[in-house]
Amino acid sequence: MEEFLPNSSFAEYLGTNVAFSSGDVWKRHRRVCNPAFKTLPLHLFSETALKMMDILETIDKTPIEIKSLMQRFTLDVLGKVAFGFDFNNLDNPDNVYVKAYNDVQKIIMDPISILFRTERIPVIRQQNLKKVDKLSNLFKEIIKEKHKALAAGKSRGDLLELMLNANENQDNQMLSDTELRHNMAVFMLAGHDTTSNALSTLLYVLSTHKDVQENAREEVLRVLGDNLIPSTEQHKSLKYLNMVIYENLRMYPPASTLIFRELTEDLKFKDFVIPAGSLLELFIYGIHHSSKLWDKPEEFLPERFEKENANSENYSWLAFGGGSRMCLGNNFSLIEQRMVLCLLLRKYEISLAPNSIHKDGLKLKFQAVSHPIELIFKRRD
Ligand code: HEM
């Protein structure tokens, strides 16, 4: 970040982290982050999922705007699972922590600011840095408290804790507290909107494909029995649910393009040679909708994922990227999505609100959902 946007609030907030680094620096970050994502604490996901169910319990048959509910839910999950902090966005979306987070999101997601380098204007830079400082100070405080808790033998099992443990391993080169903070920031950036968008489109497709919704519900009841929350083993047995999740990520990939790659050598492609040093960006959405790669690409057909890893060999399914830089949080997100579906499908029939703007198909702008999605959750007997 410092290289691309020197002295900016972006560099201050995100610094060098596992996503914005390469070569040996990336390896060092990934080695500490990887083990943390291997043993994800299911209980921290379920605490927040059950809280969301309590909120839905108070609403019956009235349309709910699902994108904002999923935004609130996924922020709380990330805070808890990634670093043991409750943003409390579900109960109180106006609280100071949520505001601090949203203020920074607005800065780093603003294309005008990046395109026109608005931070060259000192007063804008100062304002932005002040907002970034607020959130960074919260992250610093969380890391400090986590060191203390671990020294006192207290454990919650969140990712930060697991990363601090991985830091103790003599084979790894340690990450400093500043580097840990920058990774916390990038987990928020990479893991919040992506999962929240995935869940929103997922619930939309279930509302418009009642046969798929019934099949998925039948599987949830059969596999889980009386359990509300799937165990680690049960997660693996939810085959149809996984197919639905994969098909949704194919049709509506939350990351519609893959992060730039710089060619280290000339690449021969058909009749062209793309010279070393070129920057390449893969258009995931286009690949996922190509009729050369997919039969009836515009239809929602979970069955196409019946054969496990059907499309991973030829890289035609790239929702989480591929190769060594593949998404670190893919399991994190899949667990979250499965858990929400298990809870919702058991209890509710999900329908699209009458007169929805999306009734003839989901409205997209630059491959992202462009309007609110109102859904009705009707309690089942
Ligand atoms: C549906 C949800 C998600 C989608 C669609 C998604 C998608 C992606 C994609 C396409 C990449 C780029 C891979 C590449 O360049 O080959 C990526 C990287 C990454 N994602 Fe995700 N992601 C999701 C959720 C998450 C979550 C929940 C987290 C963390 C809590 C996360 C953390 C990361 C990180 C750290 C990287 C960079 C990995 C590296 O460069 O080594 N993602 N993700």
Automatic annotation (TrEMBL):
Q: Which cofactor does it need?
A: heme
Show the InterPro entries listed in the entry.
Cyt_P450, Cyt_P450_CS, Cyt_P450_E_grp-I, Cyt_P450_sf, Cytochrome_P450_Monoox
Keywords from UniProt, A to Z, are: Heme, Iron, Metal-binding, Monooxygenase, Oxidoreductase
Q: Which GO terms describe its molecular function?
A: heme binding; iron ion binding; monooxygenase activity; oxidoreductase activity, acting on paired donors, with incorporation or reduction of molecular oxygen
Instruction: Write down the superkingdom of origin.
Output: Eukaryota
Q: Where does heme bind?
A: 327
Q: Which PROSITE patterns match?
A: CYTOCHROME_P450 (PS00086)
PANTHER family, per database record: BIFUNCTIONAL ALBAFLAVENONE MONOOXYGENASE_TERPENE SYNTHASE, CYTOCHROME P450 FAMILY 4
Its family? Answer: Belongs to the cytochrome P450 family.
Q: What is this protein called?
A: Cytochrome P450
